[in-house]
């Protein structure tokens, strides 16, 4: 294996595949460079002399400017590299004319899913408890624990999605909470839902019902805690009935064009944009070629790579929506007196990511190369098949919840450092490097580090496609085995 990888022939830096010691020789593409200092794995080495204020090029694009003269062989990182990004930009629609054709003809075209009454398709048959307000969180968890005693074959789990909101909110902040809760109530991975209210909250059951235009009254039940003597006993009775009904549901063969898969990364490192994210991008292209749908989110981690997405928009109207997606999020930062480019995180930097451009160009690799067919507001359900962009922050739990709420039945989560969390939907953890996979086999489901060892991205993308179909057909991911289900709403406004 080579010690370094030059991602594109025009790059003036390469990524260390293994840790380099001072004096190590690096030779490839006709170049020979001597490391001037120790350089950790995943970090960048200068291939040429780079003058102060010149662009540092990676992924065939600028990832920042040199803060000082950088000598060939030097470590290129936060100490000598600064962002080139600024505030809102003027964008011009320059559509990509030739989208890469992906041959998915050899891949399987069906999975075994649960077809719901409204025609949506779930990949799990779970019973969900959704509190309207944080005041009943402990009650919801107690009800969940009691209801699990009555689990039957055919039910995957009973889950309580607790959260601290639903009251003391105003305007759009309250509206977003209501929409996210309603999105979960109607999610096809739930074979039955109990909506548990307190009774006096702003987002009470009667308010939420105004948003529920299409739900199965046999499978969605409501209970107000203040209106009964023992809310736990009464709720468990409701759940026993839901369990009985849902246990009769059977998986059936369904076309892969019914799959909606969320794309997310977190705890990224210098390998994420080389291995895991391009593998997920290859998967996305394969699923889209089969008529399926993918959703890319974490808008702040598009900054610096947004034009690559804008120019893949199918038409100018989508381009304009993508411009708004980017600029509205920058306005959100400014409104809260925060620096737009205060990113990457300490963990990202330790893994070799130096600037937001560096992070974003790696992050957007998850989108593959297909057209952007839809742009979604936060809490908006997906409508268009193909690749969609979703407005949500980079925070792992918030973004993964937003993907689930927009309709994703499964979330693919790439990581270079690892994390045990899970979205409301089954969350496939994909490592960017083999050491993480070997170390955290209780977290990681799929190893994309093999791109640096014995697999091409195309081969691994097909392996991932086949694995996702197994998960969609019932194979549990590790976070599910451990019983992990997380839920986080995007808090955006005043708390009363």
Task: Write the topology of this structure.
Blueprint: E1 4-5, E2 13-16, E3 25-28, E4 31-34, E5 44-46, E6 55-58, E7 61-66, E8 75-76, E9 81-82, E10 110-115, E11 121-122, E12 126-131, H1 137-147, E13 158-160, H2 171-185, E14 190-197, H3 205-209, E15 220-224, H4 231-246, E16 252-255, E17 260-265, H5 276-289, E18 293-296, H6 306-310, H7 316-335, H8 346-350, H9 356-363, E19 372-376, E20 386-390, H10 396-405, E21 410-415, E22 427-431, H11 434-439, E23 446-447, H12 457-472, H13 478-481
Parallel strand pairs: 12-13, 12-14, 14-15, 17-18, 17-21, 18-20, 19-20, 21-22, 22-23
Antiparallel strand pairs: 1-2, 2-5, 3-4, 5-8, 6-7, 7-9, 10-11, 10-16
Helix pairs in contact: 1-4, 5-12
Q: Tell me the Rg in angstroms.
A: 24 Å
Number of separate helices: 13
Distance between the termini: 58 Å
Gross morphology: globular
Mean pLDDT, nearest integer? 95
Share of residues in strands: 15-25%
Number of strands: 23
Largest beta-sheet details = 7 strands, parallel
**How does the helix and strand content classify structurally?**
alpha/beta
What's the helical proportion of residues? 25-40%
Strand order of the largest sheet: 19-20-18-17-21-22-23
What's the number of domains?
Answer: 3
Uncertain stretches of 5 or more adjacent residues: none
Short recap of the structure:
By secondary structure, the chain is an alpha/beta fold. 27% of the residues lie in helices and 20% in strands.
């Amino acid at each position: 294996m080579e010690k370094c990888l030059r991602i594109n022939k025009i790059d003036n830096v390469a990524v260390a595949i293994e840790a380099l010691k001072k004096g190590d020789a690096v030779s490839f593409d006709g170049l020979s460079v001597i490391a001037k200092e120790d350089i950790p794995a995943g970090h960048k080495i200068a291939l040429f002399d780079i003058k102060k204020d010149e662009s540092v090029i990676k992924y065939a694009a600028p990832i920042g400017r040199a803060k000082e003269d950088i000598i060939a062989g030097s470590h290129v990182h936060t100490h000598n590299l600064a962002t080139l990004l600024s505030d809102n930009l003027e964008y011009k629609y320059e559509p990509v004319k030739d989208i890469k054709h992906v041959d998915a003809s050899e891949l399987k075209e069906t999975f075994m899913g649960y077809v719901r009454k409204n025609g949506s398709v779930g990949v799990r048959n779970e019973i969900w408890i959704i509190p309207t307000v944080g005041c009943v969180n402990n009650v919801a968890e107690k009800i969940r624990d009691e209801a699990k005693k009555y689990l039957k074959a055919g039910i995957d789990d009973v889950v309580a999605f607790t959260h601290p909101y639903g009251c003391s909110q105003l305007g759009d902040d309250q509206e977003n909470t209501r929409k996210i809760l309603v999105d979960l109530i109607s999610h096809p991975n739930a074979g039955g839902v109990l909506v548990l209210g307190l009774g006096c909250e702003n987002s009470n059951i009667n308010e939420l019902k105004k948003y529920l235009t299409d739900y199965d009254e046999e499978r969605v039940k409501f209970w107000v805690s203040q209106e009964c003597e023992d809310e736990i006993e009464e709720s468990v009775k409701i759940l026993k009935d839901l369990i009985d009904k849902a246990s009769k549901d059977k998986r059936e063969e369904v076309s892969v064009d019914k799959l909606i898969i969320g794309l997310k990364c977190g705890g990224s490192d210098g390998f994420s944009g080389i291995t895991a994210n391009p593998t997920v991008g290859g998967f996305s292209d394969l699923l889209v070629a089969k008529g399926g749908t993918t959703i890319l989110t974490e808008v702040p981690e598009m900054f610096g790579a947004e034009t690559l997405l804008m120019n893949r928009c199918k038409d100018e109207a989508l381009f304009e929506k993508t411009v708004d997606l980017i600029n509205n999020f920058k306005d959100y930062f400014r409104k809260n007196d925060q620096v737009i480019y205060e990113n990457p995180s300490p963990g990202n930097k330790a893994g070799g990511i130096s600037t937001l451009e560096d992070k974003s160009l790696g992050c957007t690799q998850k989108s593959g190369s297909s057209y952007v067919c839809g742009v979604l507001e936060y809490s908006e359900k997906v409508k268009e098949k193909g690749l969609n962009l979703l407005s949500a922050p980079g925070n792992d739990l918030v973004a993964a919840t937003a993907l689930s709420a927009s309709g994703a039945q499964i979330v693919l989560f790439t990581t270079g450092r690892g994390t045990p969390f899970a979205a409301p939907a089954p969350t496939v953890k994909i490592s960017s490097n083999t050491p993480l996979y070997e170390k955290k086999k209780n977290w990681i489901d799929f190893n994309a580090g093999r791109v640096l060892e014995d697999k091409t991205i195309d081969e691994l993308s097909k392996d991932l496609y086949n694995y996702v179909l197994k998960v969609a057909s019932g194979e549990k991911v590790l976070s599910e085995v451990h019983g992990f289900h997380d839920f986080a709403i995007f808090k955006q406004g005043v708390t009363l």
